[in-house]
TrEMBL record:
This is HTH cro/C1-type domain-containing protein. It comes from the Bacteria. InterPro entries: Cro/C1-type_HTH, Lambda_DNA-bd_dom_sf. One of its GO terms (molecular function) is DNA binding. Coiled coil: none annotated. Residues 12-63 form the HTH cro/C1-type domain. SMART domains: HTH_XRE. It comes from Erysipelothrix larvae.
Length: 70
């Protein structure tokens, strides 16, 4: 599941043309923590995913796929 969450975060970041710093700021996270989560050093939590959904409102199908609810 973790790789899928990272993919969703990065896809949304790229679609919105945001730097890693800007993306981290948008979801109320420090840039260093965001970078570590993307690299796999830390894990994204469901709270992180919730913050992403609140801010960017991605398609429901994308979220279902992300959390393995297919």
């Amino acid at each position: 599941m973790e790789n899928r969450i990272v993919d969703v975060f990065e896809m949304i970041r790229e679609e919105n043309n945001l730097s890693m710093t800007a993306m981290a700021r948008e979801i109320d996270m420090s840039q260093s923590v965001y970078s570590r989560k993307v690299s796999g050093e830390y894990s994204f939590s469901l709270d992180d995913l919730r913050n992403l959904i609140i801010k960017f409102n991605p398609p429901l199908e994308l979220i279902k796929k992300c959390i393995g609810y297919e």
